[in-house]
Design goal:
The chain has about 425 residues and is of the alpha/beta class. It contains twelve helices and 19 strands. Helix 3 runs parallel beside helix 10 and helix 4 crosses helix 10.
């Protein structure tokens, strides 16, 4: 199962080692009711719970594992304005006006993240600054075109550089172009998620860990069944992403083929010298290249290089993961070639076919939030806000996303993973050209 390897790797993460979790609460062991049932205690579910509670709704959150035990608690910590898909799906399907609304919502996502950190005093090592890099002339031209379009059409201010000037952004022999922007940034994802959980509980939200939803009965009133209890509610929000079907195959089977679980992995080095960190990435920005199968990295608050990018589309954890990741890191920063690796971890994120977010309804009273495709740190906050607005009867902003059309992954239950593996191999080959 996905969940077994996901949990095992996550237990070895730098993030889990650098926080003090509260003891796990008792699982749901009663029949209870709420105004809104939320399935999943990651960023999206917790954000929805906060927004709903602030509107006066009684909210119960059911989490199959621990709070932020999935992608929310072990991702790269990169809080990015915009979407993994870029603006193209919005422009093609919704037109320029709603494409601009979608962009503005992503900017508001960053504002909302900042506001929640400030309001709830979440100490999560937040840093501003984001650096896009390209490792070939072809990719440099693509990066320049993308940045010009974003500045022209959406007002994103970037500092674009090529050639020797790139070294002022990042001291690496690998990159020939770079683009720096200040609106995005990075943070400690698990500290942030646990802070959201504390905020939700302070508003009266009941969160039950180790309480997987095994069945969800639909109708005018929803009823979620766990191993030891149940929750009835007139409204529901599904925020379990790619693990939803693993825990409860009878919860929302029609959603499974719309997203795909992709394994992504990170290493954390031993702490580095402060001067070396300042020289390698002077702005202390988070960094990501523009390959289809990308590398992403940043420094932690205690000066560890957190380097991610090795992916698995087959649901199998790659062999020699730590050594392969360290070798890839050394190609970017040769000076880190001999640095010890203290942590290796990873797990599965959900991607949609076009990498655009997939928000929608199942019937009139059950909403779902999925398909964040690696851009969930900030976007999940806005997802929770617009779904709470929709529950309250103001669905205009939610429907900007819900109107996006999404294709199912081809191949059905048996062949869609092999099909994706072949497709990604082709994209990896193109990245090498």
């Amino acid at each position: 199962m996905l969940l077994d390897s996901d949990t095992q790797l996550n237990q070895k993460s730098y993030y889990e080692a650098s926080v003090q979790r509260d003891p796990a609460g008792a699982p749901l062991q009663e029949a209870t009711s709420a105004d809104v049932l939320v399935v999943g205690a990651g960023y999206a579910g917790l954000s929805a719970a906060i927004e709903l509670a602030q509107r006066g709704y009684r909210v119960v959150v059911l989490e199959a594992d621990r709070i932020c035990s999935g992608a929310s608690g072990r991702n790269g910590g990169q809080a990015i304005v915009g979407y993994a898909s870029g603006q193209e799906p919005f422009e093609q399907q919704l037109g320029p006006q709603d494409a601009r609304r979608a962009w503005d919502l992503s900017v508001e996502s960053m504002d909302l993240l900042d506001a929640r950190i400030a309001q709830w005093k979440i100490d999560c090592d937040q840093v501003s600054g984001y650096l896009y890099v390209a490792d070939s002339p072809r990719k440099a031209r693509a990066l320049e075109a993308d940045m010009q379009a974003m500045e022209r059409d959406y007002g994103l201010q970037v500092d674009f550089r090529t050639g020797a000037a790139v070294q002022q952004h990042i001291q690496s022999p690998r990159y020939c172009a770079s683009a720096f922007e200040r609106r995005s940034g990075h943070l400690h994802p698990l500290k942030f998620g646990l802070g959201l959980a504390r905020a939700a509980r302070s508003l009266g939200v009941r969160i039950f860990e180790q309480s997987a939803v095994l069945d969800l009965q639909r109708g005018a009133t929803l009823k979620a069944l766990t191993a030891r209890g149940s929750v009835t509610a007139p409204w529901g929000v599904l925020a379990g992403n790619c693990t939803l079907g693993e825990y409860g195959p009878r919860v929302a089977p029609e959603l499974h083929s719309r997203i795909m679980p992709v394994g992504t992995y990170i290493i954390g080095t031993a702490p580095l010298d402060a001067g070396l960190c300042e020289r390698l990435i002077p702005s202390n920005a988070a960094v990501c290249d523009n390959n289809f199968v990308l590398d992403y990295f940043r420094f932690s608050a205690d000066r560890r290089m957190l380097f991610g990018g090795r992916v698995s589309y087959s649901t199998r954890t790659p062999k020699r993961l730590g050594a392969v990741m360290a070798q890839r890191m050394a190609q970017v920063f040769p000076e880190l070639g001999a640095v010890p690796v203290d942590y290796v971890w990873g797990g599965f994120v959900d991607i949609s076919m076009n990498r655009a977010p997939d928000f929608g309804r199942l019937g009139s009273n059950l909403f779902y939030l999925q398909g964040f495709s690696g851009h969930g740190v900030a976007l999940t906050g806005m997802a929770g806000k617009v779904v709470a607005e929709a529950v309250a009867g103001q669905a205009e902003r939610f429907d900007v996303f819900a109107r996006l059309q999404h294709r199912k992954f081809p191949g059905g239950p048996l062949l869609r993973t092999p099909s994706l593996v072949l497709g990604m191999a082709w994209h990896q080959f193109k990245d090498l050209l």
